[in-house]
Specification:
about 100 residues; mainly alpha; 1 helix; about 95% helix; about 0% strand
Length: about 100
C-alpha cells in the first residue's frame, strides 16, 4: 500500500475515534450533571418537606396554645366572679 493511503486511513480513524471519544465523554458528563441535579433537587425537596412538617407542628402548637388560653381566660373570669361575691359577703359581715 501506498504511504499516503495509510496516512489517510490513519487520519480518518483518528478523527472518527476522536469524535466517538468526545461524544462518549459528553454523554458521561451529561449523565453526571443529571445525577447531580437530581440529587440537589431531592435534597431541596427533603428540606422543603422538613420545613412543611415544622410549620404544621407550629400550627398545631399554636392552636393548642389558643385553646389553653381560652380555658385559662374562662377560669380567670370565674375566679373574678367568685372573688367579687366573696368581697360582698365580707363587706356584709363587717357591717
Amino acid at each position: 500500500m501506498d504511504i499516503t493511503i495509510i496516512t489517510a486511513v490513519t487520519s480518518v480513524l483518528a478523527a472518527v475515534s476522536g469524535v466517538a471519544l468526545g461524544w462518549a465523554g459528553r454523554a458521561k458528563a451529561a449523565k453526571r450533571e443529571a445525577e447531580e441535579s437530581a440529587e440537589a433537587e431531592a435534597v431541596q425537596r427533603a428540606d422543603v418537606e422538613y420545613i412543611k412538617r415544622g410549620v404544621d407542628d407550629m400550627k398545631i402548637e399554636q392552636k393548642l396554645q389558643g385553646q389553653r388560653f381560652e380555658a385559662f381566660s374562662e377560669r380567670l373570669t370565674r375566679v373574678e366572679e367568685s372573688a367579687k361575691q366573696a368581697h360582698k359577703r365580707i363587706d356584709r359581715l363587717e357591717e
